């Protein structure tokens, strides 16, 4: 008897529409193994195009921080350069020179004391950049401990319970004990409260987040620095800070230029950001910069002979696209400081408008108001109803094309569900008004239920 597929189980074969297939072409292809014969590029294009068409509208995806729009000139530049291999600096020396220009521009933007004396590199995103920042912290701690004749086998890293999952991965992959400081109603971010209970002589560093993924809030880096100063006076422990600026690293310099969060803060040794978030580049772009070259241990830098050249490398990935680096430089040239400020301000204006209006809806209570990065979150007002949840609202909005995630907060706040909106370049005020109208109509619809909606198992939202 032939196997019957359930509705959520794809068939073994991929059928080809007769209008797509050219004369002589097969009308089906295996879905999970290579077909025996080639297919014309036009047919293959149409099949892939139609499957991808089922994805959501990227402009209406308010869950992701990742950029979804660039100029036509950027698209043309991308198409002209997607064959460049970033690691092959001998073959593509101009791209290599532009990469160095970009991280030096970034070092200057983050107030490195001497950008020419700093060191940095491009990565495929903030996750790789975080790994490099964490590795440098661990290696510097190990080398210092061994120089003192002490054991270096039990490192730990202190961070908020609201860190992005990459830091949990870092600790897992590189055998570092994670120490999570729980956030709470009173301490919504890692602000130095009770920090002394989490650090000791095995602490390789503290991670401070400029733009918490759950809510978009900045952690007060200068306040954390002051807490560590006090700990050093009491204990002698000299603990550095790595700033995870995946989202805020390309917002704060333009919207909050007087905020001390970067290399102006003495303990900040390294910073990462995502060029493909508020750096306004298509996915696949990250940066990490160290205050000075001595903060990146030589033991992490390899000199390799590759494709005719002798080059240093300290990124985790080897062969990777160079096009995104050129796109980042395109944006630096195209926008400049004032252009970036205008773009980020426009996004924040939309976010603050939405936060203010959503905050007036009786069903909701704001957690934050988008005054940091253009991101905010809210929870259901206590006592409003037990008949529906924010998950139901998220489902209702998805029916209208909007992706507005609901998810539980971390650890000590795990019983609290919030909903979050990320405003990126491309979400206009007109679209925001349409979203607001859909939220208001959805709340009105859900409030009409006289008994609880049937529940179902919810998977956690993956940031």
UniProtKB/TrEMBL annotation:
Enzyme class: lyase
Assigned keywords, A-Z: Decarboxylase, Lyase, Pyridoxal phosphate
Keyword set includes Lyase: yes
Disordered as annotated region, ranges: 1-22
InterPro entries (alphabetical): Glutamate_decarboxylase (IPR010107), PyrdxlP-dep_de-COase (IPR002129), PyrdxlP-dep_Trfase (IPR015424), PyrdxlP-dep_Trfase_major (IPR015421)
UniProt key word Lyase: yes
GO molecular function: glutamate decarboxylase activity
Cofactor requirement: pyridoxal 5'-phosphate
Known catalytic reactions: L-glutamate + H(+) = 4-aminobutanoate + CO2
Pfam hit, one: Pyridoxal_deC
E.C. number: 4.1.1.15
Protein name: Glutamate decarboxylase
């Amino acid at each position: 008897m032939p196997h019957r597929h359930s509705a959520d189980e794809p068939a073994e074969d991929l059928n080809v529409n007769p209008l797509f297939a050219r004369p002589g072409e097969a009308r089906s292809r295996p879905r999970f193994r290579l077909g025996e014969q080639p297919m014309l590029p036009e047919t293959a294009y149409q099949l892939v195009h139609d499957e991808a068409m089922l994805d959501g509208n990227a402009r209406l995806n308010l869950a992701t921080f990742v950029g979804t729009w660039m100029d036509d000139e950027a698209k043309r530049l991308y198409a002209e350069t997607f064959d460049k291999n970033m690691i092959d600096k001998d073959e593509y020396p101009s791209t290599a020179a532009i990469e160095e220009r970009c991280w030096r521009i970034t070092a200057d933007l983050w107030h490195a004391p001497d950008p020419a004396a700093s060191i940095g590199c491009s990565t495929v995103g903030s996750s790789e950049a975080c790994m490099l920042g964490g590795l440098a912290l661990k290696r510097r701690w190990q080398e210092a401990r061994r120089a003192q004749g002490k054991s270096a086998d039990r490192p730990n890293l202190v961070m908020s319970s609201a860190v992005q999952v990459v830091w949990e991965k870092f600790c897992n992959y590189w055998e570092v004990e994670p120490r999570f400081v729980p956030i709470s109603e009173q301490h919504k971010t890692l602000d130095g409260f009770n920090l002394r209970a989490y650090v000791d002589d095995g602490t390789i560093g503290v991670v401070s987040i400029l733009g918490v993924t759950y809510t978009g809030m900045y952690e007060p880096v200068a306040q954390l620095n002051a807490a560590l100063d006090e700990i050093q006076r009491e204990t002698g422990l000299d603990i550095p800070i790595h700033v995870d600026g995946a989202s805020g690293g390309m917002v704060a310099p333009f919207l909050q230029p007087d905020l001390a969060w970067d290399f102006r803060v003495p303990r900040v040794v390294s910073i990462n950001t995502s060029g493909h978030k508020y750096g306004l580049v298509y996915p696949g772009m990250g940066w990490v910069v160290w205050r000075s070259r001595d903060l990146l241990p030589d033991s992490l830098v390899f000199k390799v002979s590759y494709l005719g050249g002798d080059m240093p490398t300290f990124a985790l990935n080897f062969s990777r696209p160079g096009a995104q680096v050129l796109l980042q430089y395109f944006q630096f040239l195209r926008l400049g400081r004032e252009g970036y400020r205008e773009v980020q301000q426009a996004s924040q204006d939309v976010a603050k408008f939405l936060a203010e209006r959503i905050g007036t809806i009786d069903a909701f209570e704001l957690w934050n108001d988008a005054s940091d990065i253009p991101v905010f979150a809210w929870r259901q007002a206590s006592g409003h109803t037990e008949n529906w949840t924010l998950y139901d609202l998220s489902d209702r909005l998805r029916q209208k094309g909007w992706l507005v995630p609901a998810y539980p907060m971390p650890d000590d706040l795990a019983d609290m569900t919030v909903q979050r909106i990320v405003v990126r370049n491309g979400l206009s005020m007109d679209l925001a008004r349409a979203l607001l109208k859909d939220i208001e109509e959805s709340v009105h619809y859900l409030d009409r239920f006289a008994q609880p909606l049937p529940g179902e198992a919810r998977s956690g939202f993956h940031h």
